[in-house]
Specification:
The chain is 36% helix and 12% strand. By secondary structure, it is α/β, with parallel strands linked by helices. Strands 2-1-5-10-11 form a five-stranded parallel beta sheet, sandwiched between helices. Strands 3-4 form a two-stranded antiparallel ribbon. α3 crosses α9.
């Protein structure tokens, strides 16, 4: 070996070793993970309810995305504070769980040593599921006489109940929820200053076209409902960016898995409350496939 080649090996090899070590160290390791959120994070699967971290009334699933993320990361200390029906207020005050019992303030699980927090909240502040379920119609839209239609829930579209004179009250509630989400992020930072914070959004289970009567929502209402979910996610993305925290965008990859699909393909249930396996679930909430997808997207956002 020539002197020049020997010198090149002596220089390049340490650099390669250093670069390899740096690349290996680029993937962070988390030790204390706290999950915060509502039923979209708790994944209300009625046959997999766990009371390990929250009361039975929260309907928290042992296979929700927080449990899956904790297992995938090998978390030593894990707390799943998620609870059905939770709002931003329930971060700092006890919550009366939907099916009984009291869930302590979700922030109570945060500590100074918490190094990973996921938070999926805001949907109940806006009342999104309530809006969706209010749009259920037992009959399709029918015009009995010119200008005369069947009343709700017997065929009339629901959008006019929320949009009048160019004012969309659901859009107003979404905008009003933004400072509440921002306050939640500030609260997490104050209690766990060294934590990586992931805002987990609501993947959109509503297609751009209806499928009445498979999902009993007027076909005219479906695109509007789709747009409201999109607005909600845009708001969450904006707040996350303004607060300098990460967004786990769970919407990519959901095409072909909306509520108009068969139960074996749905990421969220329709009115018929069947999840994968099949297991009983709450309408318009994630199925087990949906929870699996959420876990994949959160892990991807964490570089896993």
């Amino acid at each position: 070996m020539s002197i020049r080649r020997l010198l090149a090996c002596l220089i390049v090899t340490p650099i390669a070793v250093f670069m390899s070590a740096s690349a290996g160290a680029a993937t962070p390791t988390y030790h204390e993970y706290v999950a915060l959120g509502d039923s979209w994070s708790a994944d209300v699967n009625l046959l997999k309810i766990t009371t390990q971290y929250a009361p039975f009334g929260c309907v928290q699933s042992s296979a929700d995305y927080p449990h899956q993320v904790a297992a995938a990361l090998g978390i030593a200390q894990f707390q799943d504070a998620t609870c059905g029906g939770a709002t931003t207020d329930d971060m700092t005050q006890p919550q009366s769980a939907p099916l009984g019992g009291s869930n302590p303030p979700q922030f109570d699980r945060l500590t100074k040593t918490t190094d990973l927090v996921t938070v999926g909240i805001g949907g109940n502040d806006v009342g999104l599921v309530g809006v969706i379920t209010s749009c259920i119609n037992l009959l399709p839209s029918l015009t009995l006489l010119p200008g005369v239609t069947l009343p709700e829930p017997l065929g009339a579209p629901c959008k006019p109940n929320y949009v009048s004179g160019g004012v969309d009250t659901v859009s107003q509630k979404i905008a009003a929820a933004a400072p509440k989400i921002a306050a939640v992020i500030d609260g997490i930072k104050a209690r766990s200053p060294h934590a990586t914070i992931e805002v987990v959004n609501y993947f959109n289970p509503i297609p751009t076209q209806g499928c009445y009567p498979y999902v009993q929502i007027d076909n005219e209402d479906v695109p509007w409902l789709h747009d409201k979910l999109a607005e909600m996610d845009a708001m969450l993305a904006g707040v996350a960016a303004s607060k300098g925290v990460e967004l786990a965008d769970t919407d990519p990859g959901t095409a072909g898995h909306d509520v108009c699909q068969l139960p074996g393909a749905q990421y969220a249930t329709g009115l018929i409350p069947l999840s994968t396996d099949p297991l009983i679930a709450v309408p318009f909430h994630p199925t087990q496939l949906g929870a699996d997808h959420q876990a994949e997207r959160v892990l991807a956002a964490l570089g896993q």
